[in-house]
Design a protein that fits this description.
By secondary structure, the chain is an alpha/beta fold. The protein has 13 helices and nine strands. It has two domains: 5-176, 3-Layer(aba) Sandwich (Rossmann fold), CATH 3.40.50.720; 215-301, N-(1-d-carboxylethyl)-l-norvaline Dehydrogenase, domain 2. The strands form two sheets. It has a six-stranded parallel beta sheet with strand order 3-2-1-4-5-6, sandwiched between helices.
Length: 313
């Protein structure tokens, strides 16, 4: 098999560690960054330097970019001395940035007109340990674009990511990354609401964290069992245990909000959750169902979007 020449643009917090992982896997790597000092670790390990994205593209079969956002991605791709000016027919550009799905689709059209392929491949996860040492293979990579191009690059993605998922057409990976980030930040915000309530009520943060980790929310049950078996299947026919129907779940939320009022702790996300539960329980046909039926209200607000997965046999 012919040697693969890889170009890597953007050697910041995330990009540097992915690039170093490629070098450590013995790929031929050429690098570029607006700040040459950021490239020193890669250069010290044997990477070559390119003065511009155009020059890097001319030397590369596969080009990776890891940049702050859509503005930088577009500038590097199609700006002066950009990738588009140097990319050759049959080369592939994979953008690892968190960007815009609309931009990804538009840029694919531009690169396709030059005979080149494009993937959007944003990453999620950890970049290094507490000592700054590169950790290979600890990133989740979401990849959108032509599946045959994805399969060609999959072994390279696996050199710096341990979970690589093909998401579909171009732009779909960026959509997955944005949804993933929204979930992460929203979950952190709800966790902080829970912690501030508990600490102000007199429980040490360490104890609260341990109890949340051990409970259904923190143990992974929601993502791995509860939601896949109920809401994501569209199955709300009631259930067993403490989470089965509205009277119990709504009561629990009401008690938490009552404690928040007593202690003057604002609980914005919890209040919104309780309000949706209340709106749902007022629909008589839902009153005796599994409480997760209230998530259908969000589907209605989103324009009657139906979120379902296939049942695993």
């Amino acid at each position: 098999m012919d040697e693969i020449n890889i170009g890597f643009i953007g050697l910041g917090n995330m990009g540097q560690h992915m690039c170093l992982a490629l070098i450590q896997k013995n790929y031929n790597v050429t690098v570029h960054d607006i700040n040459r000092e950021a490239a020193l670790p890669a250069l010290e390990l044997g990477a070559a330097w390119a003065d511009t994205p155009k020059e890097l593209a001319q030397k590369s079969d596969i080009i990776f970019t890891s940049l702050p956002g859509p503005t930088e991605v577009e500038a590097v791709a199609t700006g002066e001395d950009g990738i588009i000016d140097g990319i050759t027919s049959d080369s592939v550009w994979a953008d690892l940035s968190t960007s815009s799905p609309e931009l990804m689709r538009r840029l694919q059209e531009t690169f396709s007109s030059r005979g080149a392929s494009m993937l959007d491949a944003p990453v999620s996860g950890r970049r290094s340990d507490e000592n700054g040492v590169t950790l290979n293979g600890v990133l989740s990579i979401m990849v959108g674009g032509h599946e045959n191009i994805y399969m060609k690059l999959k072994p390279i993605f696996e050199s710096f990511g341990n979970k690589v998922t093909y998401t579909g057409e171009i732009g779909s990976a960026t959509i997955c990354k944005l949804a993933n980030n929204m979930f992460q930040y929203g979950l952190e915000r709800l966790l902080v609401e829970s912690l501030t309530l508990g600490v102000k009520a007199g429980v040490p943060a360490e104890t609260l964290m341990q109890c949340i980790r051990n409970g259904a929310g923190g143990s992974g049950r929601i993502l791995n069992v509860s939601m896949p078996d109920t809401y994501l299947q569209g199955k709300f026919g009631g259930g067993t245990g403490s989470e089965s129907t509205f009277p119990i779940s709504r009561k629990d939320m009401a008690l938490a909000l009552e404690l928040g009022r007593e202690l003057n702790v604002p609980l914005q996300i919890a209040t919104g959750t309780y309000n949706d539960m209340t709106a749902a329980v007022n629909r008589k046909e839902w009153a005796d169902l599994n409480y997760r039926v209230y998530h259908l209200l969000q589907e209605e607000r989103a324009g009657n979007v139906e979120v379902r997965i296939s049942s695993e046999e």
